[in-house]
């Protein structure tokens, strides 16, 4: 899990928001929800008791909307009283609950942001500031830009783009053109990086208009320093944006401006060829590329070679002929400059397509150690495997190791080697003929990692141990950690345990040793050694008593082992110590997960109120936590409560992650609960298709939906699939229910 570091600077960036949020507001949105302010309490009765009217008794029950309005009024009144009395924490939580009853209410969101900053819960305030920005049309451009920047840091690119769009319109109206230019460029890059060149081109239009007449926009001093490399780099980026959007004329214009600014003949030829290719003028593109190649330019890396292949495939009869044509044209250039890696590696790609492994080795082999390239590594791996050159392959394993001692760049070709019984047996025979000490250090590590990939964990461990003495203690600990975690992920718990125990024996500083114990505890629990896992987790926690992460392993082990009462008690202890620590974002994530697991445990125990309360607390702090929205919505819908709000939450979760089968299952079940069986079947069939055989609950729900729609035969077939998927130990209750449904249907 990756945790974002705490950004105290965000408080300073958003501090100007506090000026407009410092006073409690009573907007029309609140007035509409809560009515006029409650009257002051009288010191004595204004009328005699015998003149008081009879208590009002509703003739019909309130519907959900009316009930929500009443709850909202109550919460807002309570929040204002808490705020007035100085109970800022209570007021903050009450406003957070109110915000979910009146989504988007600027006045409520303002109060949350204000209180969040006052309590120095800056991350919470920032999250609600995003919601406020999205729902308050009068927010200043500066505030929008600050919040959009936070969205980008928080990996919320879509939200960021929408806020930047609003800000840039306001900046244009305010004649703040320097800020407008920077924001337009930010949007251009944002859309390009997310594969939306057409949208990027719209912002390229605005940038090009502004830099074409800097005097009009007051940008004379800005233009030369606007992007690294000066104005030429800006024109190049605009041209490439237009190319990506398929707008050849605009691209050509920008590249011409670039050339006027600073002449670079090689790039001018490449740009001209790219523009011609967008126009599908293959002849013109080829002519420009021929000029580039004839001049022996190397300025553009492999771009011109890739374009040459594309153009040739459009103009030559067959793909095979096109490939050979390009090889014949580029090979003489490679012979003249064999050290030029972009051309050598491009040629090795073409040779690999032809299965010409000898040429792959001749072109890429001499360069790979000095200029490591993922595609070239993969090509060479295939070549050495095809040639049965096991010594060269072993050396390549060393070259292919990354900083984490992983062989990630060789995953695909090595998987093919392992899957080929004949080749794999031959390589294993080669390894048996060796003495490990005859190999270089990284070769031994590479062999160990390859054997680990092949699930030969004990043999991999033997090879790894031969490498450890040649490393200092720090590198030993890193390698053992990486090896152990990889073994754990590959269900090689025995070897994972050996690696972590070896790391502990190194006697590293507490900060590292505590993590070794933390992971070892997890591995022990996955082997069913619960008591030993608990002892190990407690050792980890004792080494750093201020770490919520280390302490969280104790209740997790109990949870995983099914000791639910003890797990609940330990999670409560964890929260009692760490729930009020808002400065450490890793701690906040631990608290978040603890609350979600406590909700799950409460749900298993049939305590709906507690289960929903924990999820409400998660959403208080993380208002757009998709998982919590789905879980809370499902709990409500499944138990016939807050159907409207629950349905909306689930729909939002699906909108955020349309490929998540668990959310689709929740939506289908919500439709089922609402009696909309056709809609339920549609969503549940999508969920089942994505889930495959991984989740029997989806098939159980789908079977119910088929029954509701009057399709009993489909229901029976689906429930049978559910029985095949359900884990007999972990999902015994659901399994029994499905069996009973099948029995009932068979008796009809």
CATH superfamily of one domain: Tetratricopeptide repeat domain
SS elements, strand count: 0
Helix coverage percent: over 70%
Mean pLDDT: 90
What top-tier CATH class of one domain fits best? Answer: Mainly Alpha
Class by SSE composition: mainly alpha
Distance between the termini: 51 Å
Oligomer: single chain
Uncertain runs? 1-53
- Tell me about the largest β-sheet: none
**CATH third-level topology of one domain:** Serine Threonine Protein Phosphatase 5, Tetratricopeptide repeat
Number of helices: 42
* Overall geometric form: globular
Radius of gyration: 32 Å
Shape-level CATH architecture of one domain? Alpha Horseshoe
Structure write-up:
- With 748 residues, this protein is mainly α.
- It has a domain at 659-747: Tetratricopeptide repeat domain (Serine Threonine Protein Phosphatase 5, Tetratricopeptide repeat, Alpha Horseshoe).
- It contains 42 helices and no strands.
- It is globular, with a radius of gyration of 32 Å.
- The model is unreliable at 1-53 (pLDDT under 50).
- It comes from Bremerella cremea.
- Residues 26-49 are annotated as: Disordered.
- Residues 1-28 form the signal peptide.
- Keywords: Signal, TPR repeat.
- This is Tetratricopeptide repeat protein.
Sum up the structure in keywords:
mainly alpha, disordered N terminus, Serine Threonine Protein Phosphatase 5, Tetratricopeptide repeat, 748 residues
SSE blueprint and pairings:
Layout: H1 9-14, H2 17-21, H3 28-34, H4 64-84, H5 88-101, H6 106-118, H7 122-135, H8 141-153, H9 157-173, H10 177-193, H11 197-212, H12 214-217, H13 220-223, H14 230-244, H15 248-261, H16 265-278, H17 282-294, H18 303-315, H19 319-336, H20 341-353, H21 357-364, H22 374-387, H23 390-400, H24 411-419, H25 421-432, H26 441-453, H27 457-467, H28 473-489, H29 493-505, H30 510-526, H31 530-543, H32 548-560, H33 564-578, H34 585-604, H35 608-621, H36 626-638, H37 643-656, H38 661-673, H39 677-691, H40 696-708, H41 712-725, H42 732-746
Helix pairs in contact: 4-5, 5-6, 6-7, 7-8, 8-9, 9-10, 10-11, 11-14, 14-15, 15-16, 16-17, 16-18, 17-18, 18-19, 19-20, 20-21, 20-22, 21-22, 22-23, 22-24, 23-26, 26-27, 28-29, 29-30, 30-31, 30-32, 31-32, 32-33, 32-34, 33-34, 34-35, 35-36, 36-37, 36-38, 37-38, 38-39, 38-40, 39-40, 40-41, 41-42
């Amino acid at each position: 899990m990756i945790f974002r570091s705490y950004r105290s600077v965000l408080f300073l960036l958003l501090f100007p928001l506090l000026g407009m949020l410092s006073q409690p507001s009573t907007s029309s949105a609140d007035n509409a929800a809560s009515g006029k302010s409650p009257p002051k309490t009288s010191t004595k009765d204004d009328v005699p008791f015998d003149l008081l009217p009879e208590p009002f008794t509703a003739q019909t029950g309130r519907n959900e909307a009316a009930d929500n309005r009443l709850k909202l009024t109550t919460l807002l009144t309570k929040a204002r009283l808490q705020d007035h009395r100085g109970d800022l924490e209570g007021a903050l939580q009450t406003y957070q609950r109110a915000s979910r009853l009146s989504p988007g209410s600027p006045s409520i969101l303002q109060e949350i942001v204000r209180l969040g900053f006052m309590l120095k819960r800056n991350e919470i305030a920032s999250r609600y500031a995003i919601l406020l920005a999205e729902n308050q049309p009068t927010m200043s451009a500066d505030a929008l830009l600050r919040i959009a920047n936070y969205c980008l840091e928080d990996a919320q690119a879509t939200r960021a783009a929408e806020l930047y769009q609003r800000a840039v319109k306001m900046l244009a109206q305010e004649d703040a053109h320097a800020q407008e230019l920077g924001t337009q460029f930010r949007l251009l890059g944002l859309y390009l990086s997310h594969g939306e060149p057409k949208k990027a081109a719209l912002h390229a239009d605005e940038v090009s208009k502004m830099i074409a007449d800097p005097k009009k926009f007051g940008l004379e001093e800005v233009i030369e320093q606007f992007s690294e490399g000066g104005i030429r780099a800006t024109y190049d980026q605009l041209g490439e944006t237009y190319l990506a959007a398929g707008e050849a004329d605009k691209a050509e214009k920008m590249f011409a401006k670039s050339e006027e600014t600073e002449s670079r003949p090689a790039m001018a030829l490449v740009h001209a060829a790219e523009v011609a290719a967008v126009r599908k003028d293959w002849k013109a593109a080829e002519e420009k590329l021929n000029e580039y190649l004839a001049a022996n330019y190397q300025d553009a890396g492999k771009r011109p070679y890739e374009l040459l292949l594309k153009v040739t495939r459009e103009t030559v009869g067959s793909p095979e002929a096109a490939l050979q044509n390009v090889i014949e044209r580029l090979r003489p250039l490679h012979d003249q400059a064999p050290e030029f890696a972009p051309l050598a590696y491009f040629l090795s790609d073409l040779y690999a397509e032809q299965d010409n492994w000898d040429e792959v080795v001749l072109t890429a082999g001499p360069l790979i150690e000095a200029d490591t390239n993922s595609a070239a590594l993969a090509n060479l791996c295939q070549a050495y495997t095809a040639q049965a050159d096991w010594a060269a392959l072993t050396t390549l394993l060393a070259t292919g190791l990354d900083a984490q001692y992983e062989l990630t760049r060789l995953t695909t070709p090595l998987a093919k080697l392992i899957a080929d019984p004949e080749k794999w047996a031959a390589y294993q025979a080669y390894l048996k003929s060796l003495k490990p000490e005859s190999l270089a250090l990284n070769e031994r590590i590479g062999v160990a990692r390859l054997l680990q990939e092949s699930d030969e964990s004990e043999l991999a461990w033997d090879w790894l141990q031969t490498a450890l003495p040649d490393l200092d203690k720090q590198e030993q600990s890193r390698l053992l950690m990486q090896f152990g975690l990889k073994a754990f992920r590959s269900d090689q718990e025995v070897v994972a345990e050996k690696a972590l125990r070896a790391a502990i024996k190194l006697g590293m500083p507490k900060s590292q040793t505590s993590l070794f114990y933390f992971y070892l505890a997890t591995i022990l629990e996955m082997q069913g050694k619960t008591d030993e896992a608990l002892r190990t987790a407690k050792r980890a926690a004792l080494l750093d008593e201020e770490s919520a992460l280390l302490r969280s392993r104790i209740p997790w082990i109990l949870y995983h082992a099914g000791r639910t009462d003890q797990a609940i008690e330990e999670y409560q202890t964890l929260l009692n110590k760490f729930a009020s620590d808002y400065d450490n974002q890793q701690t906040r994530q631990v608290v978040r997960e603890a609350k979600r697991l406590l909700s799950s445990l409460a749900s298993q125990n049939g305590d709906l109120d507690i289960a929903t309360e924990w999820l409400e607390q998660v959403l208080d702090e993380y208002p757009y936590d998709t998982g919590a929205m789905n879980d809370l919505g499902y709990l409500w819908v499944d138990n016939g409560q807050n159907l409207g709000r629950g349905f909306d939450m689930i729909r939002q979760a699906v909108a955020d992650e349309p490929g998540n089968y668990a959310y689709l299952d929740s939506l289908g079940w919500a439709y089922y609960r609402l009696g909309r069986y056709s809609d339920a079947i549609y969503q549940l069939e999508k969920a089942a298709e994505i889930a495959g055989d991984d989740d029997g609950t989806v098939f159980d729900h789908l079977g119910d939906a088929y029954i509701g729609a009057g399709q009993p035969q489909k229901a029976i077939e689906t429930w049978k699939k559910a029985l095949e998927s359900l884990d007999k130990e972990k999902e015994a209750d659901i399994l029994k229910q499905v069996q009973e449904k099948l029995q009932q249907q068979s008796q009809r």
